[in-house]
Design a protein that fits this description.
Blueprint (H helix, E strand, L loop, with lengths): L1 H15 L8 E6 L5 E2 L5 E7 L12 E5 L3 E5 L5 E3 L2 E5 L9 E6 L13 E7 L5 E6 L13 E6 L10 E4 L2 E4 L5 E4 L2 E4 L13 E9 L9 E9 L6 E6 L5 E2 L5 E7 L10 E4 L2 E4 L5 E4 L2 E5 L6 E8 L12 E7 L5 E6 L14 E5 L2
Parallel strand pairs: 2-9, 19-26
Antiparallel strand pairs: 1-3, 3-7, 4-5, 4-8, 6-7, 8-9, 10-11, 11-15, 12-13, 12-16, 14-15, 16-17, 18-20, 20-24, 21-22, 21-25, 23-24, 25-26, 27-28
Length: 361
């Protein structure tokens, strides 16, 4: 029994005179260095703990500097703590764009061990991203039915990708999916990849919404909307040859049309209709060599042709009305009928009168 008492007494003595050389542990929780904070009511959060002894709370001091506006010290009379978590409220006015420089003084325990002091800075960000460089510009006329749309979206706190989107004529697309590409702070939205087509005469309404990467009180949002339009009015056309309303007699003739449009003619839209028959540039009879359309008449039976030419420009404006044209094909010679005197008959006059009719179908 005496031996057990001796050992216990020795342990108590050694423990009582053990030297604590470990300083308190101090860790910044929020806001981190370089953070952009969207709040004006801020409490800086830290963990302060001493693993071997107790910290001296009177040594805890955080200084916040927002020069040239104010210098603010947060000591034991101001901060609060729960277990190892310490909260340092800043009761000073803050504005968008302010930068707060913070100094955490060394923290001591009751054995006079001091942690290392450290400093950091964070920023106040109360505004959303800046959206500029809108393209196509507001109110302009664009001839490309699949025009790319771009803008500059910048925020010093960065962007929250899943909160950035573009709305085109009511249809919403993310700015961070396969339809858009980013070049530094500029995005380009590829309308053709998204399957969009803007027809002639259309007004395209665009809105861009973006959120920044500020933290604490939620992201800051910005949005801007604008519009551009596409010209209306389809191509114009004329029959160059043969002359309208005339007959031609060559079996290998080629009719020539001129089709003009300032935006360009969509070849696939070109079509000639005569009665129930139609021809496109996919048929060998039609050849498109802008601005001329050649229609081979070989193989078309003779007769009067009443037809229409249809075409649209590259932004979908149709020729309205289509060009109506008419001409005739005649490959046979006129013929004689009702001849007098009749064929093979005998006449008894030296100078007989001869009569006949000339006809052509």
């Amino acid at each position: 029994m005496s031996k057990l008492v001796f050992i216990l007494s020795l342990f108590i003595v050694i423990t009582a005179f053990a030297v604590d050389t470990t300083p308190p542990y101090v860790e910044l929780i929020w806001p981190d260095s370089g953070a952009y904070v969207s709040c004006t009511d801020i409490a800086i959060e830290m963990i302060i703990v001493d693993r071997d002894f107790w910290i001296d709370r009177s040594s805890v001091l955080l200084t916040v500097n927002n020069l040239p506006h104010w210098l603010y010290a947060i000591d034991e009379s101001t901060y609060s703590w729960v277990d190892s978590f310490f909260y340092f409220p800043i009761h000073e006015p803050m504005s968008d764009g302010d930068s707060l420089w913070c100094l955490m003084s060394p923290v001591a325990d009751y054995d006079d061990n001091y942690s290392d002091g450290f400093s950091w800075a964070f920023h106040i960000d109360l505004t959303g991203p800046e959206i500029s460089g809108l393209n196509p510009p507001q109110g302009t006329e664009v001839s490309d039915p699949r025009a790319n749309i771009s803008a500059v979206v910048y925020d010093k706190a960065g962007l929250t990708e899943d909160s950035c989107y573009i709305t085109i004529n009511g249809e919403r697309f993310s700015l961070f999916d396969g339809y858009a590409a980013w070049f530094a702070d500029t995005f380009v939205f590829y309308s053709d990849l998204a399957g969009l087509f803007f027809p002639g005469g259309d007004t395209v309404e665009v809105c861009v919404n973006a959120a920044d990467g500020a933290e604490g009180c939620g992201a800051n949002w910005s949005d801007t909307c604008w519009w551009f339009n596409l010209p209306s009015g389809g191509p114009t056309a004329e029959l160059v040859w043969p002359p309208t309303g005339k007959w031609i007699s060559c079996e290998d003739s080629v009719a020539v049309f001129r089709i003009l449009d300032s935006e360009g003619v969509e070849e696939d839209s070109i079509r000639i209709e005569v009665g129930a028959e139609s021809w496109t540039t996919a048929d060998p009879e039609l050849t498109w060599s802008p601005p001329f359309l050649y229609w081979s008449l070989a193989g078309i039976p003779e007769g009067w042709i009443d037809g229409t030419l249809h075409a649209a420009d590259i932004i979908g404006n149709s020729m309205d009305p289509p060009l109506a044209f008419a001409f005739g094909l005649d490959f046979t010679r006129p013929y004689v009928l009702n001849g007098l005197p009749a064929h093979g008959s005998a006449v008894y006059e030296v100078n007989p009168e001869v009569f006949f009719d000339l006809a052509d179908d």
